[in-house]
Predict the 3D structure of the following.
Amino acid sequence: MTKSTNQPHATLRDGALKATIWANSNDEGRTRFSITLTRSYTDAEGKWHDTNYLSRNELLRIARLAQKAYDAVGEAYAGEPAADADQGDSQ
C-alpha cells in the first residue's frame, strides 16, 4: 500500500509564524481549502515542531497572515469554474 502525502497548496510565513493552505477535492471535483495557523519552534534537541499556541505579541502578525491566506484562497477560487464566493466559509 502506497501512502500519499497531501502537500500544501501554499505556505505563507512571517518569521516563525506560518499560514499553511491545504487544498482538498470533494466527490464533485470541487476544491475546498482549509488553513492552519501555527508557530514553529525548536526543542532542546534542536528538532523543529509546530504549535498553534500563540502569544499576545504574535496575534497581530498571525492576523495579517490570515488576511494573506484569505486573499490567496480567493485568488485560487477565482481560477476555478463556477466558484462561489462563500464556498470556503463553511467547513
